[in-house]
Design a protein that fits this description.
This protein is an alpha/beta fold. The protein folds into 3 domains: 3-87, Arc Repressor Mutant, subunit A; 93-160 and 261-290, D-Maltodextrin-Binding Protein, domain 2 (3-Layer(aba) Sandwich); 164-252, D-Maltodextrin-Binding Protein, domain 2 (3-Layer(aba) Sandwich). It is built from 10 helices and 14 strands. The protein has a 5-stranded mixed beta sheet with strand order 4-3-5-14-6. It has a 3-stranded antiparallel beta sheet with strand order 12-7-13. α1 (3-16) packs across α3 and α1 crosses α4. The two termini are 50 Å apart.
Length: 292
């Protein structure tokens, strides 16, 4: 017995009021409809209908079962519609909140590829490192990078991870000497990122408290000042690696332990995730999984 089909027949019977009407709508015989409803009642071990020659009336149990059948059938319909929409055209508008540095580096590349793949999607992107409430500011999707357990009222899907690097320019080290231990950072000019949760305590081995003459809310700005030879910074890989490749920066304390930086896609907890949002997150997760 196909229970979902029986539920559908039962719901249509309640709507149309007769076996003949249901049979005509579905192109089957009234006796087939009647037999399917009887099978359903036998499976449930309960009477759902009072039958007479004139009309059909639901029992008390039948009324309660009908309400639950409608909910289940609606969910099945939503699930089927979701698959069809995901497989067909993806269109609509997404408002997205991005961290500044990631929005200008890796997420710039992935969202450009997403726009190329889905030209009917309109993106409204806000760049900023401040911790905004997504719902309050009308965002459908946000990205956050964190090296600690993520505490949020939103669904957080991990996408990829980055590493941290203690960075200095060759000129700075030539002038001020090598950094050989985390504790030796205390004698150097170390820059502080304003939104770093640890403040001026860098999570290197057991942690080391640093000081310096620059506190800034942009790691890209900090990177440029480090390249200029003015101090040392604690930078994520997506900010530091281009400067590493050019020889503008070198990594110190590479053998010391540092936490990973996990990138999360955040979105509101809803009963049904909109297909355009689900497709965007799926695309980005797949993009990062294929990236070296």
């Amino acid at each position: 017995m196909n229970k979902l089909r029986c539920m559908h027949l039962f719901a249509r019977l309640a709507d149309l009021g007769s076996f003949a009407a249901v049979a005509e709508e579905l192109g089957v015989t009234p006796s087939m409809v009647s037999k399917e409803i009887q099978k359903l009642e036998m499976t449930l071990d309960a009477r759902l209908l009072h039958r007479s020659t004139r009309k059909i009336q639901l029992t008390h149990i039948g009324e309660g079962y009908l309400n639950r059948c409608r909910e289940i059938l609606a969910q099945v319909h939503d699930a089927d519609a979701y698959v069809q929409q995901m497989q067909n055209s993806v269109k609509g508008k997404l408002r997205i909140n991005l961290p500044m540095a990631l929005g200008l580096t890796d997420l710039n590349a992935v969202l450009s590829d997403f726009m190329s793949a889905y030209p009917e999607v309109e993106l409204d992107i806000h760049l900023g490192d401040e911790a905004l409430d997504l719902l309050e500011h009308g965002f459908d999707l946000g990205f956050r990078a964190s090296s600690t357990v993520f505490d949020s009222n939103y669904i957080g899907k991990p996408l990829t991870k980055f590493t941290y690097h203690v960075c200095a320019s060759p000129n700075y080290l030539a002038k001020h000497g090598d950094v050989t231990t985390p504790q030796s950072l205390k004698t150097h000019n170390c820059f502080i990122y304003s939104y770093f949760k640890g403040g001026n305590k860098w999570p290197i081995n057991e942690g080391v408290t640093v000081t310096g003459n620059l506190k800034v809310n942009s790691t890209l700005y900090m990177k440029d000042v480090i390249v200029a030879g003015l101090g040392i910074g604690f930078l994520p890989s997506f900010v530091a690696k281009p400067a590493f490749k050019k020889g503008q920066l070198v990594e110190v304390l590479s053998n010391c332990s540092k936490p990973d930086l996990i990138l999360y896609a955040l979105y509101p907890n809803r009963k049904h995730t909109p297909p355009i949002l689900a497709k965007c997150i799926e695309f980005i997760a797949d993009w990062f999984s294929k990236k070296p």
